[in-house]
Design goal:
Length: about 350
């Protein structure tokens, strides 16, 4: 059994008036599947966030992934810009590239990131699809030795964790356990690893300054690993005025899992995709997000167990590629901006 403790920069360092969220903790190694389903269902109905422990990825390997992530972000800006994200959403995203809450943000997010997707060679027919499929952008091996191997391994292991979580979600929605294992869903997923680095700039919501603006995730589920620096906040009810934000403390060795908008659509809003943001306290912060969506051509429509005569579908069916493409366009800077800067 792994040791799971809150980090040294946890809630004890926050002001006494700070609200802290208490999340359910699901043990992926537990033989009691009924308890796991019950805990997950309660979390999905309540706030859409939970901790996942004993997920099978070792603590030592997680430390290696974080170390390799820091090596990437410690490169010079010139070196990182040579790895700039492409139109397949692979590669480096600079500070302020993304603006997730334009109504409340003065600037973009004070974070830099790096996208790594499922590797699809250029000569593979899948690579011809317009978005999300294709080869990754990899740093040169002499610049960052072992980097590609480490990230590829983590990507593969995290996908297996996500599939295990999806099976519990299936049961919580009264579906067959392998509902999300189909080829058109997680059999050929759009799974994206994103490394994140928040610089030390202090966030100030009153002035529209955020490490990461308020948003809900786009897809099915997200697995989030963080360092020990507190920063993630969730808002359980986005319609409450003023909105009430609660910190989610890091839990060493655990993933923080949250549901995405696509699962909320699938479940006819029974399960919640919750608003969240990152408020930085002046310390550098690193996190690793793993976003899991169904395949490019998957049709997302209300699940049969989530609709009735009294509760008809709230959303029309939509192809995964259509939905994701629009969400990415809405939140990321146009790549032409960087072309103009370099001329």
């Amino acid at each position: 059994m792994e040791n799971h403790q809150q980090g040294k920069n946890d809630v004890a360092a926050l002001p006494a008036s700070t609200k802290v969220s208490v999340l359910n903790c699901i043990d992926l190694s537990s033989p009691d599947i009924h308890q796991s389903v019950s805990l997950l269902k309660q979390a999905c109905l309540d706030c859409g966030f939970f901790y996942l422990v004993n997920h099978g990825i070792s603590g030592e390997f997680m430390e290696e992934v974080f170390d390799q992530s820091k090596r990437l972000f410690n490169l010079s800006l010139d070196d990182k810009m040579k790895l700039l994200r492409n139109d397949k959403h692979r590669g480096y995203t600079p500070l302020l590239d993304e603006i997730l809450d334009p109504q409340n943000q003065l600037y973009g997010d004070y974070k830099e990131g790096y996208y790594i997707g499922v590797e699809v060679p250029e000569d593979d027919p899948q690579a011809e699809k317009p978005f999300f499929y294709g080869p990754n952008v990899w740093p040169a091996a002499d610049l960052l030795p072992k980097w590609r191997e480490t990230m590829t391994q983590f990507h593969q292991e995290a996908l297996e964790v996500a599939k295990a979580v999806a099976r519990i979600i299936s049961l919580a929605l009264d579906l067959d356990v392998d509902f999300f294992d189909k080829p058109e869903m997680l059999g050929e997923p759009i799974a994206t690893l994103r490394l994140l680095h928040y610089e030390g700039r202090i966030s100030d919501p009153m002035k529209g300054l955020y490490g990461c603006g308020a948003h809900s995730d786009f897809g099915l589920i997200t697995l989030l690993a963080t360092d020990e620096v507190v920063g993630l906040q969730i808002c359980k009810d986005r319609d409450t005025k003023p909105q009430i934000w609660e910190y989610v403390p890091p839990l060493k060795g655990a993933f923080i899992v949250n549901l995405g908008d696509m699962l909320e659509r699938w479940s006819n809003c029974i399960f919640k995709s919750t608003l969240h943001r990152v408020v930085v306290n002046g310390q550098e912060r690193y996190s690793i997000a793993y976003f899991v969506e169904p395949s490019h051509d998957c049709l997302v429509e209300c699940l049969p167990t989530c609709k009735s005569e009294k509760n008809p579908p709230k959303f029309p069916p939509i192809k995964c590629r259509t939905y994701l493409t629009q969400r990415y366009k809405d939140t990321h800077a146009d790549l032409n901006v960087y072309s103009k800067q370099q001329t």
